[in-house]
Write a structure and sequence with these properties.
Distance between the termini of chain B: 93 Å
CATH topology of the largest domain in chain B: FAD/NAD(P)-binding domain
CATH superfamily of chain C: Folate-binding superfamily
Shape of chain B: elongated
CATH class of the largest domain in chain B: Alpha Beta
CATH topology of chain C: Folate-binding fold
Structural class of chain B: alpha+beta
Strand content of chain B: 25-35%
Order of helices and strands of chain C: EEEHEEE
Radius of gyration of chain C: 14 Å
Largest sheet of chain B: 7 strands, mixed
Number of domains of chain B: 6
Shape of chain C: globular
Number of helices of chain C: 1
Strand content of chain C: 35-45%
Structural class of chain C: mainly beta
Largest interface: A-B, 120 and 115 residues
Largest sheet of chain C: 4 strands, antiparallel
Number of strands of chain C: 6
Distance between the termini of chain C: 27 Å
Helix content of chain C: under 10%
Oligomer: heterotrimer
Chains: A alpha/beta, B alpha+beta, C mainly beta
Chain lengths: ~425, ~1000, ~90
C-alpha cells in the first residue's frame, strides 16, 4: 500500500498528483467468505480491520447498500469521549480512547483526533452532585475527569453566558480533558483503506435481501449482487438493524429514531472545547473549518426518514443561545439527520445471537461515532473467537431479560425521551 | 468619491437619496435601493474578500443569493454580524463593512502564500500528512489551520436585536414573485383563495425586472408592478418582500424568514430585525426561478469574472457597470441580453459564443447593433490577479476538445453564462424526487410528494409565454379546488424573443502545458483537478466527492457549482449525469439567522419560570432561591451573614426543636375521581389501596413497567370516590400522563377521571414538635388532637374564613402537617402561619433544610429514585404487595433484582464524625487499590445531621443489607478526598417512627 | 412539523402532542401467569418497522386524550388517526 506522508505529498505534487492510488478497490463479490460484515459504516469497516489485524482473518467482505461511510459515521457531531458513569460503558469507551489516540498513525490516514476536552455544564448543585458521581466513577476507572467551578469554567470558555440575564446560571462543570473530536469521514475512509490493503473486499452498492440459515446455523446471505456463502455474519447496520432483524425473524429491544444536527457558517476561532448544556440537550464544538457544530435532541418519534423537522432544531438552538449568546448573530448553514438504533436502556448491544454464526452490533443510540474503534475491536473478537471480549461482556442482548441494564440516564424504555 | 461605474439614466435606485457608507475604512457613496455590492461596483471596488483555502482575491460573482464570494463583516447600530453577503445587503446610511478572512488587509493578505503552495495542497491533502509526531496535530498543525479558516468574526456581546415568530395558514403559498409566481398568485387570489406571496428580494418581479419582454403591451416590470399593486390591495392576499421560504417540511409546513429591518440603519423599538413565519399551506406553488451557471475556465475566480445575468442586473436594476471593456462568454442566447444592454449604454462588449453559429432573433439584434460576436470561441483563462486585466481566448474545435491558437485580448470583466439551473431546493426538500432534463442539462422536480407544484423556470420552462399560461392555469385550478369559485383570468399577451438551443458545453479544456486552476466551487477553492484526484483515489460516489473535496459545502451551498461538479464526475466516470445523481437538498435554502430560528425564547425566557403564590413573601424575607425544574423554590432564608450551611442548619434545628414552615406548593397534585378510583390506585401503586378509609392518607410508590421506581407520594381519600394524589415536583407531568395512559388505553373499563390540580392548591408543610399547638391556633374550630387528627389523617378545616385541607403527613420525621388552601389564598395562609407561629418560635425553612431532615430520617428522594433503582434498593420493598398485581410487578422477578448481594440503601457516617462526605463519592474497600478500583456503592445524599451534630449520608451500597457495621472508604478523587466511614442504618433519627405518631 | 388529526379536536400541529411509542404493544392482563419472554416482549421488544407504524400520541396541550396514529415512518405520511378505544382495522 502506498504510504501517506509529507514527503509522498511533495513527490506527488511534482507529478500533478497523478500518482495516487485508489484508497480502496471496487471488487465484485466472491462466492464465499470466512466472514461477511453487513454495513460499510465506521463500525463495519473497523470490525473488518480488526478481524484482519488482530485475528488474521482476511477473507472478509464488507457489504454496503450505498456508499461506505454514508451512515452515522458521516453524519454526526464528531465528539469522542469516555465520560460514562457505568463501568461497562466507561471501560469500553476508554479502550476506544486509546485506539483513537494512535489511530492516525495506525491507519496512516490523518483522522485528526483532537483532544480538546469536553465540558459538561451543570446548572444546579444537584447536577453538580450527579456529575461528581459520574466523574468519581470515571476516576476510579482510570479515566481522566475534573470538576470545574464557575470561575474555572469562565476561564476556559469565556464566551459562555455568565451574565445575570440567564434562566439557568452555570454552577460548574464536569470536564474530561482527554476527550475531543475527530474528522468523521476520515475514520471510515482510513479503516476502509487499511482493511482493503489487508485483503478485505469492500463491496458498495450491494443490498442484503435475505439470509440462508439452516438448523439454527448461518450458511450465507442473499444480496442484490448474488448469493454469498459464509458461516459468520456480523451485523453493523445501526439505524437499520430492525429492518434486517425482521428478515431474521428477530425482534430487538431497539427502535429507530432520527437525530438532527446542524452547523453554522464558518467563523474565526471562538470555541476550543466541546461543551454540552446541562439544563437541556445541546452540545457544540467548532470544527477546524470554523463552523459551529451543534446537536441535540431526537425528533421524538420513530423515523427512518433522514429528514428532520424545524421545531427540534429550534429547540436545540434555543438552548444553544442560552449557552452561547454569540450564536444569535450567526447563520445556520446546513442541517442533516441520522437514523439510529435507540436501545431500551441507552446502551449498545454487541453479542452473539441464538443463530450460530450471527453476531449483533447495534443499539448505539447517539454514541456510535466515538465507539467506532472499540466497537470494531471487541466485535472482531466476538466474531473471531465466538465469545464476547471482557470489554463488551456487559453489552449482551439478554440483559433486558436478566435485568442487568446499563442505563446511564435512568430514563428507561421511552427511547424517544432523550 | 465619484461613482465612476454608475450609469446615468438607467436603474431602479433612488438617485434623490444619496447614502454614505464605509468599506474597509474608506468612505463611499451610493443610492437608496443599492445593495452593498452594487454600490461598491459603482465605485469601482472589485476586491472584497479572499477565498477559503488559497486566499485568492475575490470579487463579486452574482447579484443575489447565489453569491459565493462577496462575504463581509457588517457593522450596524453598534453591533457586528459576520458573513453577510454584500449582494443581498441593502445599503443604508452609515453602513460599515469590512473584508473577512484576510490579514493584514484584503489588498495584502499573508494567507495568500497558500496560493503559491497550492500544488502541495490538493483536495484532501490534510488526510495524508500532519500525522507525525503524534502530538503535533493537536498542538501545532491544527491551531494553525483553525486560525487560517473561518470567515467573519462573531460578536461576543449579547445580540440586542429582537426576533419574532409568526404562525400562519393559507390556501396557497407562493414562493417567488417572478412571472410564474405573480401569475399563479393573481389567478388564485382573483378566484378567492387566501394567498401568501413571498419574494426573497426587496423588489418584486424576478426576471421581469431585467428581461426584454412585453406583456399586454407593457414592459415586464410595469406589468409586474401593476399586478403587485392590485394584489396588495386585496384582503385575501399577503404579499411579502425580503422574505425567503427556506424550508419545506412535513405536511405542507413551510418556513419563511422575513428580513424586517436588515435594510435600515437600525430597528425601531419593538420591531424585529427578522421574523420567522411558520406557514401551513393547503397548496404550494414553487416559483423560485433559476440560477445561471458558469462555464468553467482558467483562473475563472479572478475578480471581474461575473455571471452574465448579474452584469445585466447590475445595469438594469442598479444602473451600475461591472466593467467598461466586457467580454461576454456564453454557450446560449440569454447572455446576449447582457451584451445588448452594454451596447445600449455605449459600452462595446465582445461576445465569445462556444456554439458554431446561431441565428436566432436576439443574435440578429446583437449583430444589427454592431456587437462583435466570435462563434466557436472560448475564454481559456482570465489574466490579472486582483482584477481581470485581459484574457486568453481561443477558437475551439467542434468536439470541444482542442483549442486553436491562443490570443490575448484586453478586458476588465468577463460575463459568463453556461445556461440555467432550476432552483429545485424546495421541491426536493418536500420529499419529491427529481429528474434530469436533457434539453436543459439540469434537474427538475419529478412527481410531487406533498401538495405542491413547481412552475416557470424552476420547472425548466424558459419561455415567458408558456410560463404565464401554465401559471395562470395552475393558480386558477388550485384555487378552484379549495374555494370552489370559478373566476378565471384572461392570460395576457406576451411578446418575447425566441431563443435557440444552448450548447452542451460547460468546461474549457486546458491548453497544452498550462496548469490554470479551473474552479468549480469558488468559495471553497475546489478546482477541476481536485475532483479528478478524488475519483482517481476511489472517492467515486458523488457524496464521497463532495466530502473529500468539500465541493458545494461552502456558504453558497454550491448554487453555482454543484451541477458543473456533476458534469465533471459524469465525464470522468463515463456515466450520464442522472446516474451520478445529486447530493440531498436539505433546508435551509440559504443560511438562516440562528437568532430568527430561536425567536423570543432567550435569556430569562429560554424556559418558563414557575413561582408559588407565596413567592413574593419569600423574596421579601431574604429567601435564596434554587431552580427545581422550572420552579423557583426558597433554598434557605438568609439571616445576617449566614451562608447556605449555617442557615439550613439553623432552619433544620428549629424544626427538630420547635416548628418550621416550608412552601410545598410545587408538589404535583392530581385529583382522582370515580367509582373505580380505589381499584385504579391499587394497580398503580405497589402497596394495597382497597381498604383506605375516607379521611385517611397513605404513602405509595409507583413503578414503571420495567420495575424501576417512577415516583412516590401520599394519596388521600377525600370522599368515597375522590382521592387527592401528590407526586414529586419533578415527576408531576409524567405521572399524570402515566395515569391517563392506563385509564384510556389499558383499563378503559375503569370508571375513573384524573386531572391535575397542582396550580389549584398552595401548600405549606408545618413540621416540628410544636406544630400541633400552632395548628390548633390556626384552626381553632377543628379538633387537631392526636385522636381528632391522627397520623396519616385528613380533615377539611376553616382557616380564619378560608377553606383549608389539613393532611397529617411528615417528610421530616417530626410531628408534621401539610395545609393546602386554594392558590389565591396561599399568601393569606402563609402570613397567618408566620404571624401566629411567632408564639411557637416558628421559622420558615427552605429546600436545603427540608433535604437535611429527610436525609437523616432515611427518607428517599430524587437522588435515590434516579431511574435506576427498584423498591428493594431504596428500602421500599416493605411497600411491595405480594398479594396483588400492579404496574411493573412482573419485572421485579428479574434475576438481577433478586441477587443476594443486591444494592440497598444504607446510612454512612464518617469515622471522625467531622468530615462531610461529598455527594457523588463512591464507596470502596481499598482506597489505594489498583485502577479500575471496584466501586461498591455511591453516596446519594449528604447532610449535617442536626440530631446528632455530625455528618450523615445516604448511600446505595452493594449488599447493603449485610453491610451495616462495616468500615469502608468514601472516595471522591475529583475533590481529592478519601474518608473512612462506617455503614449504619439509613434511619438515623427516630428509627421507630414514634415522633410522627406522637 | 407533523399535522395530526386528533379524533377529538381536529387537525393540530405536532407541538400540541407528546409521542407515546408503538401502539401495537399490548400489556399482558393483570394477575395472569406469563412467561419471561412474553413480559419482555411487552416491556422491551419493538418491531420498529420502516413503513406503516401504529403509534400512540398524547394530546397533552389539548384534550389530553391518548390517540392512535397510523403513520409511515419513512415518509411521515399519516394514513389515519383513531380514538384510544377504537379498533384499528
Amino acid at each position: 500500500m502506498q504510504k501517506y506522508s509529507f514527503l509522498s505529498l511533495i513527490k506527488n505534487a511534482f507529478s500533478g498528483h497523478k500518482g495516487w492510488e485508489v484508497a480502496w478497490k471496487d471488487p465484485t463479490p466472491k462466492k464465499e467468505y470466512d466472514v461477511v460484515i453487513i454495513g460499510g459504516g465506521g463500525h463495519g469497516l473497523a470490525t473488518a480491520y480488526y478481524l484482519a489485524k488482530e485475528h488474521k482473518i482476511t477473507n472478509i467482505a464488507v457489504i454496503e447498500k450505498g456508499w461506505i461511510g454514508g451512515g452515522n459515521v458521516g453524519r454526526n457531531t464528531t465528539i469522542i469521549r469516555s465520560n460514562y458513569m457505568h463501568d461497562e460503558n466507561g471501560l469500553f469507551y476508554e479502550k476506544g480512547m486509546d485506539l483513537w489516540r494512535s489511530m492516525s498513525q495506525d491507519l496512516n490516514f490523518n483522522i485528526m483526533f483532537s483532544p480538546r476536552g469536553i465540558i459538561n455544564l451543570a446548572h444546579s448543585d444537584a447536577q453538580m452532585n450527579a456529575y461528581a458521581r459520574r466523574g468519581n466513577s470515571m476516576r476510579l476507572n482510570g479515566i481522566d475527569a475534573v470538576l470545574l467551578d464557575r470561575e474555572e469554567v469562565k476561564k476556559k470558555v469565556p464566551v459562555l453566558d455568565f451574565s445575570d440575564n440567564v434562566r439557568f446560571p452555570i454552577f460548574g462543570a464536569l470536564m474530561q480533558p482527554s476527550a475531543g473530536t475527530a474528522r468523521h469521514d476520515a475514520v471510515a475512509w482510513g479503516y476502509a483503506r487499511q482493511a482493503d490493503s489487508m485483503g478485505v473486499d469492500i463491496i458498495q452498492h450491494c443490498e442484503v435481501t435475505g439470509f440462508d440459515i439452516s438448523n439454527g446455523k448461518m450458511k450465507g446471505i442473499k444480496t442484490s449482487r448474488g448469493d454469498i456463502k459464509t458461516k459468520k455474519v456480523g451485523l453493523c447496520v445501526a439505524g437499520s438493524t430492525s429492518i434486517l432483524a425482521e428478515m431474521l425473524n428477530m425482534t430487538l429491544p431497539i427502535e429507530t429514531h432520527l437525530l438532527q444536527a446542524c452547523v453554522s457558517e464558518p467563523i474565526k476561532p471562538i470555541l476550543d472545547h466541546v461543551v454540552t448544556f446541562g439544563a437541556g440537550h445541546f452540545y457544540c464544538s467548532q470544527s477546524d473549518k470554523g463552523e459551529m457544530v451543534m446537536g441535540g435532541d431526537l425528533d421524538g418519534y420513530n423515523s427512518y426518514a433522514q429528514r428532520g423537522n424545524l421545531p427540534t432544531l429550534q429547540h436545540v438552538l434555543t438552548e444553544g443561545i442560552a449557552m452561547f449568546p454569540f450564536l444569535s448573530k450567526l447563520n445556520m448553514l446546513r442541517t442533516w439527520g441520522g437514523i439510529m438504533d435507540m436501545s431500551m436502556d441507552g446502551s449498545p448491544i454487541i453479542d452473539k445471537t441464538h443463530i450460530a454464526g450471527l453476531y449483533l452490533n447495534c443499539g448505539w443510540c447517539y454514541g456510535g461515532f466515538k465507539a467506532t474503534p472499540a466497537s470494531g475491536f471487541t466485535f472482531a473478537h466476538t466474531i473471531a473467537q465466538d465469545r464476547v471480549h471482557e470489554l463488551n461482556a456487559g453489552f449482551r442482548l439478554d440483559r433486558f431479560s436478566t435485568g442487568h441494564l446499563i442505563d446511564e440516564k435512568g430514563l428507561g424504555t421511552k427511547t424517544w425521551i432523550s | 468619491m465619484v461613482q465612476s461605474y454608475r450609469l446615468d439614466k438607467i436603474g431602479l435606485v433612488n438617485r434623490e437619496k444619496k447614502l454614505s457608507f464605509k468599506f474597509n475604512g474608506k468612505k463611499y457613496f451610493g443610492y437608496e435601493g443599492d445593495t452593498l455590492a452594487s454600490a461598491l461596483i459603482a465605485n469601482g471596488v472589485h476586491l472584497v474578500g479572499r477565498s477559503f483555502k488559497y486566499h485568492r482575491p475575490r470579487g463579486f460573482f452574482g447579484a443575489g443569493v447565489d453569491e459565493p464570494y462577496a462575504i463581509v463583516q457588517l457593522y450596524r447600530n453598534g453591533e457586528t454580524e459576520p458573513n453577510v453577503r454584500a449582494t443581498e445587503q441593502e445599503l443604508f446610511e452609515g453602513l460599515e463593512a469590512k473584508s473577512v478572512n484576510c490579514w493584514p488587509s484584503v489588498n495584502f493578505d499573508i494567507g495568500a502564500i497558500n496560493n503559491f503552495l497550492n500544488i502541495f495542497l490538493p483536495a484532501g491533502f490534510y488526510y495524508k500528512t500532519f500525522m507525525w509526531p503524534r502530538s503535533f496535530w493537536y498542538r501545532i498543525y491544527e491551531p494553525f489551520i483553525r486560525k487560517a479558516a473561518g470567515f467573519g468574526v462573531a460578536s461576543k456581546e449579547h445580540d440586542k436585536e429582537r426576533y419574532e415568530h409568526k404562525y400562519e395558514y393559507c390556501d396557497l403559498l407562493i414562493a417567488g414573485s417572478g412571472p410564474s409566481g405573480l401569475a399563479s398568485a393573481y389567478a388564485a387570489a382573483k378566484n378567492g383563495a387566501r394567498v401568501i406571496l413571498a419574494e426573497d428580494k426587496p423588489r418584486f418581479g424576478g426576471s421581469l425586472l431585467t428581461s426584454d419582454v412585453s406583456i399586454n403591451n407593457q414592459s415586464g416590470k410595469e406589468w409586474a408592478d401593476n399586478i403587485i399593486t392590485e394584489l396588495k390591495g386585496m384582503t385575501n392576499v399577503t404579499v411579502k418582500n425580503r422574505a425567503q421560504i427556506f424550508g419545506y417540511y412535513d405536511h405542507n409546513m413551510l418556513v419563511m424568514s422575513e428580513r424586517v429591518t436588515d435594510h435600515l440603519p437600525k430597528s425601531e423599538e419593538f420591531t424585529p430585525k427578522q421574523r420567522l413565519w411558520y406557514i401551513r399551506a393547503k397548496q404550494v406553488v414553487i416559483s423560485s426561478g433559476s440560477i445561471e451557471r458558469p462555464i468553467v475556465f482558467g483562473n475563472n475566480d479572478t475578480p471581474g469574472v461575473v455571471l452574465a445575468s448579474a452584469a445585466k442586473e447590475y445595469m438594469k436594476v442598479y444602473g451600475v457597470l461591472v466593467g467598461k471593456k466586457p467580454i461576454v462568454f456564453t454557450n446560449n442566447d440569454s447572455a446576449y441580453e447582457t451584451a445588448i444592454e452594454f451596447k445600449k449604454n455605449n459600452i462595446n462588449p465582445i461576445v465569445l459564443d462556444s456554439r458554431q453559429d446561431s441565428n436566432s432573433e436576439i443574435i440578429k439584434e446583437a449583430k444589427s447593433l454592431g456587437i462583435d460576436i466570435k462563434f466557436s470561441h472560448v475564454v481559456v483563462a482570465a489574466k490579472g490577479y486582483k482584477k481581470v486585466k485581459s484574457c486568453d481566448i481561443a477558437e475551439i474545435s467542434e468536439d470541444k476538445q482542442n483549442l486553436n491558437q491562443i490570443k490575448n485580448i484586453e478586458c476588465d470583466c468577463i460575463c459568463v453564462s453556461g445556461f440555467w439551473t432550476p432552483t429545485i431546493h424546495l421541491a426536493s426538500q418536500s420529499g419529491g424526487k427529481t429528474k434530469f432534463k436533457e434539453e436543459i442539462d439540469a434537474f427538475v422536480p419529478d412527481k410531487s410528494k406533498q401538495k405542491e407544484v413547481t412552475l416557470g423556470s424552476a420547472n425548466g420552462v424558459f419561455t415567458l409565454e408558456e410560463t404565464l399560461k401554465t401559471s395562470f392555469d395552475k393558480g386558477f385550478e388550485l384555487s378552484k379546488e379549495i374555494t370552489n369559485n370559478n373566476n378565471s383570468q384572461q392570460i395576457p399577451k406576451v411578446s418575447e424573443k425566441k431563443h435557440s438551443k444552448h450548447d452542451k458545453f460547460w468546461c474549457v479544456p486546458l491548453p497544452k502545458g498550462k496548469k490554470y486552476k479551473r474552479f468549480l466551487d469558488f468559495q471553497n477553492d475546489v478546482a477541476v483537478s481536485d475532483i479528478e484526484l478524488a475519483i482517481r483515489e476511489g472517492y467515486r460516489s458523488i457524496e464521497h466527492v463532495k466530502r473529500y473535496t468539500t465541493l458545494g459545502m461552502a456558504t453558497d451551498q454550491g448554487k453555482t457549482s454543484n451541477l458543473n461538479g456533476l458534469q465533471l464526475v459524469s465525464n470522468i466516470e463515463n456515466k450520464v449525469v442522472p446516474a451520478v445523481g445529486h447530493t440531498t437538498f436539505r433546508p435551509p435554502y440559504t443560511p438562516i439567522s440562528i437568532g430568527a430560528i430561536v425567536g423570543r425564547e432567550i435569556g430569562k425566557h429560554s424556559k418558563p419560570t414557575r413561582k408559588s403564590p407565596m413567592h413574593n413573601w419569600h423574596k421579601k424575607n431574604n429567601a435564596v432561591f434554587v431552580d427545581a425544574g422550572v420552579w423557583l423554590r426558597p433554598r434557605y432564608y438568609k439571616r445576617g451573614n449566614e451562608g447556605l450551611f449555617e442557615a439550613s442548619k439553623r432552619e433544620a434545628e428549629n424544626v427538630r426543636k420547635n416548628v418550621g414552615v416550608c412552601d410545598v406548593t410545587t408538589l404535583g397534585k392530581i385529583d382522582i375521581k370515580g367509582p373505580n378510583a380505589a381499584e385504579f390506585l391499587n394497580r398503580v401503586y405497589t402497596n394495597a389501596w382497597l381498604k383506605l378509609p375516607v379521611g385517611k392518607a397513605r404513602y405509595g410508590v409507583m413503578l414503571r413497567e420495567d420495575g424501576i421506581v417512577m415516583d412516590d407520594g401520599t394519596t388521600t381519600r377525600i370522599s368515597e370516590h375522590h382521592y387527592h394524589m401528590t407526586t414529586t415536583t419533578a415527576q408531576a407531568a409524567n405521572v399524570l400522563s402515566h395515569l391517563e395512559y392506563y385509564l384510556q388505553l389499558v383499563w378503559p373499563e375503569l370508571d375513573v377521571n384524573v386531572v391535575s390540580t397542582t396550580e389549584q392548591w398552595a401548600g405549606a408543610a408545618i413540621a416540628g414538635p410544636k406544630s400541633r399547638d400552632l395548628l390548633q391556633k390556626l384552626f381553632s374550630d377543628t379538633d387537631v388532637s392526636n385522636e381528632g387528627l391522627p397520623f396519616m389523617g385528613f380533615v377539611e378545616a376553616n382557616l380564619f374564613g378560608v377553606n383549608a385541607r389539613i393532611f397529617r403527613i411528615s417528610f421530616s420525621g417530626e410531628l408534621a402537617y401539610e395545609v393546602n388552601v386554594e392558590s389565591d389564598n396561599g399568601n393569606f395562609m402563609w402570613e397567618k402561619i408566620i404571624e401566629i407561629g411567632k408564639d411557637f418560635d416558628l421559622q420558615p425553612y427552605g429546600t436545603e433544610a427540608l433535604s437535611t431532615l429527610r436525609i437523616e430520617m432515611g427518607h428517599v428522594a430524587g437522588s435515590e429514585l434516579d431511574g435506576r433503582t427498584i423498591p428493594y434498593d431504596t428500602g421500599l420493598d416493605g411497600l411491595v404487595s405480594k398479594k396483588k398485581d400492579f404496574i411493573g410487578k412482573r419485572s421485579l422477578l428479574k434475576k438481577a433484582y433478586n441477587e443476594k448481594d443486591r444494592q440497598r440503601l444504607v446510612g454512612v457516617v464518617p469515622l471522625d464524625k467531622k468530615t462531610s462526605i461529598p455527594e457523588g463519592s463512591h464507596l470502596v474497600k481499598d482506597p489505594k487499590g489498583k485502577l479500575p478500583n471496584p466501586k461498591l456503592g455511591h453516596i446519594s445524599a449528604s447532610c449535617w445531621s442536626v440530631e446528632h451534630n455530625n455528618p450523615f449520608s445516604l448511600a446505595i451500597l452493594k449488599d447493603g443489607k449485610n453491610m451495616i457495621g462495616s468500615k469502608l472508604y468514601a472516595m471522591s478523587p475529583l475533590k481529592n478526598k478519601t474518608i473512612a466511614v462506617e455503614i449504619v442504618s439509613s434511619h438515623y433519627v427516630d428509627p421507630k417512627g414514634e415522633r410522627v405518631r406522637s | 412539523m407533523l399535522y395530526i388529526k386528533c379524533p377529538h379536536c381536529g387537525l393540530r400541529s405536532q407541538n400540541e402532542f407528546a409521542y407515546g411509542g408503538d401502539a401495537s404493544v399490548k400489556r399482558p392482563e393483570l394477575n395472569k401467569e406469563i412467561s419471561d419472554q412474553e413480559w419482555d416482549e411487552f416491556v422491551y421488544l419493538r418491531k420498529s418497522p420502516r413503513g406503516k407504524h401504529l403509534e400512540l400520541w398524547h394530546h397533552v396541550s389539548g384534550c389530553r386524550q391518548w390517540i392512535k396514529v397510523l403513520r409511515d415512518t419513512s415518509t411521515h405520511e399519516i394514513f389515519n388517526t383513531y380514538k384510544s378505544e377504537e379498533k384499528v382495522g
